[in-house]
Input
Amino acid sequence: MSDTPKSISSSSVNPFADGDPGDAPKEASQSPLLASETGSFVRQLAADIAEGEFDLPPFPDTAIRVQECIRDENSDISTIAAIVATEPALAARLMRMANSVALRRGPFEITDIPTAISRVGLDMVMNVAVAFASKETFRISTDSNHVADVNELRRTSVRVGAIAFLLARAGKSAQKPEEAMLAGLLHAVGKLYILTKESQYPTLFANKQALARLMTNWHSGVARAIVESWGFPERIAHAVDEQEVRTRDRKSSPDLSDLLYIGNILARAGHRVAAHLGDLDALARLNFSAQQVADLLEDNAEELQSMIEAMQ
Output
């Protein structure tokens, strides 16, 4: 029995909680080296999560300054605009969002940052900063065999965020659309973090099945711990941790994890499956039918696509 601390906030960070974190299930054909690397990585993940310490590249300074400025009640739009202007890539994303079909009002294009901030609102500015920061923070070598995986995770995160935004805006729950988008943008940070460790565990990362098992078992708990360490609200941390929980109490109030659960399915399988979602607990909690979700996506297809393009 391991003495690894179990006082971890996530309910899913350690699927082997009754035993040693290194006692991950091993396939009969697994080589000793693969088994060793897998066990070592699992133990490291358990320790990182328990201690809240992650070997992450620094969160981009501009994104941190934007975040702090938005939370400062004494800050104004001109101050935030000045910070955004120091990072051209961030400013470009903000301008695209302000001029997207989702947020554009009237025929005139916005060309200055303060007006763009006024149009999208501070919560959406935060989301744009997070999307930018996530891309800058989780980088892997261009020689990696997982470059395509990282890029697809980033695209999927944006799609999940945009779908969650639409569902929250159209639903009768108390979830803020901008916060739902934020949860979607952050939902895959656990997978992105794991993929940055390729150079340390080359045998594990060369085995797609072993890596997929580890990712499935650990990514949501890692995501929760990272979101907590970055100082985002508990409801966001809870949502990324519970994003793949299928069985839910239909009598309890919906939360952001319901939006992530549906958003994940639709972002990966495509919008055409919406009408065939069936009688899911998450849908019931959100007071949606599968057909209502399908109609919502169809009616807002242009707006949805504009948000996705603006955030990428």
